[in-house]
Amino acid sequence: MNLHPMPGVSRATTRRIGLLGGSFNPAHAGHRHISLEAMKRLGLDEVWWLVSPQNPLKSGDGMEPLPTRVARARQVARHSRIRVEAPELLLGTRYTLDTVRALKRVYRHARFVWLMGADILPQLVDWAGWRDLFGSIPIAAFARPGWGYAALAAPAPRTFERFRLHAARARQLATCEPPAWCFIPSRLDTHSATAIRAVRPPRTRAKGKTIPDQTRQLPDRSKASDALLKLVRESLDDNKAEDVVVIDLKGKSAFADYMVIASGRSNRQVVAIAEHLADKLKQTGHGYTPVEGKQTGDWVLVDAGDVVVHVFRPEPRAFYALEKMWALENEAADKPVKKAAAKRAAPKTASKSPARRKRAS
What we know:
Elements: E1 16-22, H1 29-42, E2 46-51, H2 66-77, E3 82-85, H3 88-91, H4 96-106, E4 111-117, H5 130-134, E5 139-142, H6 155-159, E6 164-165, E7 181-184, H7 193-199, E8 203-206, E9 209-212, H8 221-238, E10 242-248, E11 258-263, H9 267-283, E12 291-292, E13 299-303, E14 307-312, H10 314-320, H11 322-345, H12 354-360
Parallel strand pairs: 1-2, 1-4, 2-3, 4-5, 5-7, 6-7, 11-14
Antiparallel strand pairs: 8-9, 10-11, 12-13, 13-14
């Protein structure tokens, strides 16, 4: 075959490669997060982003042109080991199974792993040839906000439960003969293409070009995020949320100023707390607020922009231990600062030569 769907990649490559497919409408930090986690946790040499011309399961309404999506994805990826292409145009494939089979025919010696967020697991039964996909390529599913272990109860993962590898063996996945798959309870990223499209400013077209409207400048983001945090806490208190913890992310994360973690006693209360918060934000002029995870109610994410709220049932909250995860990261980030400060504060005791010590005595 003379096809080169991935420019610059030798057909004889033996690399361990993760495949992350989708519309990328638009690409965002969550895609990059999964890719970096996959390289680290699965021991992959690189990750390929396969930008689909059109997802068969999604409407074309609001879909940016393919060149626009590819260009944005390359800007977001910004990593030497992440390749962004649209190989289905050359391969002539439309469904994931056909694309995987075609890539395996072209790159016969590569070790491929299909990458996805755990929120896709319940949707797999709607994919064409999903059973054959499990039999064609190892699959890694990464935890997503609202989609942790609850996603494993979906029909597709239950069907292939006996072929699941424990996360501790994730680095073996690329060399496993399919069917083989693994659930990775990794650190979470809250970005969502659906949420980004929902809050993206409207676009107007002129002379064949897409021109974004001017974005407004907030007068004081710090004050705005503090006021938003106060509103969030009031809503959580009104709805009897328990064990509320606020984590200050200023200077530590780009996606929000604060993370709020709270608990509800039951799935129903968890969903109610999240829905009431989203309604309150809308009523107070904050507009549409994405809410993810209401399907299961084990863990619901409310993305209020500068404040991200996680509402858990007690068991999933204890398992994921987000407070501990961020505390460890903050501690690791603070160590160099504390070490430098301690060094500056330490008394300077210059070492003396034997001759100088003798004279001093």
